C-alpha cells in the first residue's frame, strides 16, 4: 500500500500531522511506562524514507504518515525509536531492548517494510 503524500502547508497535511502527533504522544506515554527512557522533544516531520528517528540529543521524530498505520505498527515504530534512546545502533543489545515489549519485532518490521511503502 502506497500511503498518501501530502504537501506541507496544506490544511490536510496539518490535520494529519495533528493526528500523528496525538497518536505518537499517547503511545510514547504508554510504552515509556516500561522503558522509562528520557527524551526531550517530539517532532512530526515529512520524512521521505524513515518512519522515525532518534537524535543524539534525545529528540524523537516521527513521519506524519504514521497516522495512516494500524495501531500495532505505530507501536512498533514508537518502541523502536524509544529503544534508540539507550542503544543508538542496531546491535544485538538494541534488539534485546525492543524484544522486551515486542517479541515479534521481526515480523512487525517485515510487515512495515513490505505492506507500507513511501
The low-confidence runs, each spanning 5 or more residues with pLDDT under 50, are none
**Biggest sheet descriptor:** 3 strands, mixed
Oligomer classification: single chain
Query: What share of residues is helical?
Result: 40-55%
Series of secondary-structure elements, N-terminal to C-terminal: HEEEHHH
Structural class call reads mainly alpha
Main sheet strand line-up? 1-3-2
End-to-end Cα distance, whole Å, is 9 Å
Strand content: 5-15%
Shape: globular
Quantity of strands, as a count: 3
Please, what is the average pLDDT?
A: 96
**Which value, in Å, is the CA radius of gyration?**
14 Å
Q: Give the helix tally.
A: 4
Descriptive report:
Helix content is 51%, strand content 9%. The protein is mainly alpha-helical and 118 residues long. Strands 1-3-2 form a three-stranded mixed β-sheet, covered by helices on one side. Helix 1 crosses helix 2 (71-84) and helix 2 packs across helix 3. The longest helix has 25 residues, at 11-35. The protein is globular and about 40 Å long.
Write the layout of secondary structure elements.
Blueprint: H1 11-35, E1 42-45, E2 52-54, E3 60-63, H2 71-84, H3 92-101, H4 105-115
Parallel strand pairs: 1-3
Antiparallel strand pairs: 2-3
Amino acid at each position: 500500500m502506497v500511503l498518501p503524500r501530502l504537501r506541507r502547508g496544506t490544511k490536510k497535511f496539518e490535520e494529519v500531522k495533528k493526528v500523528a502527533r496525538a497518536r505518537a504522544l499517547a503511545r510514547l506515554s504508554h510504552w515509556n511506562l516500561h522503558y522509562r527512557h528520557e527524551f526531550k522533544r517530539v517532532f512530526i516531520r515529512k520524512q521521505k524514507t524513515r518512519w522515525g528517528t532518534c537524535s543524539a540529543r534525545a529528540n524523537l521524530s516521527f513521519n506524519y504518515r504514521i497516522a495512516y498505520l494500524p495501531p500495532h505498527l505505530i507501536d512498533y515504530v514508537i518502541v523502536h525509536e524509544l529503544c534508540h534512546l539507550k542503544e543508538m545502533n542496531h546491535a544485538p543489545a538494541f534488539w534485546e531492548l525492543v524484544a522486551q515489549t515486542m517479541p515479534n519485532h521481526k515480523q512487525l518490521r517485515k510487515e512495515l517494510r513490505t505492506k507500507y511503502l513511501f
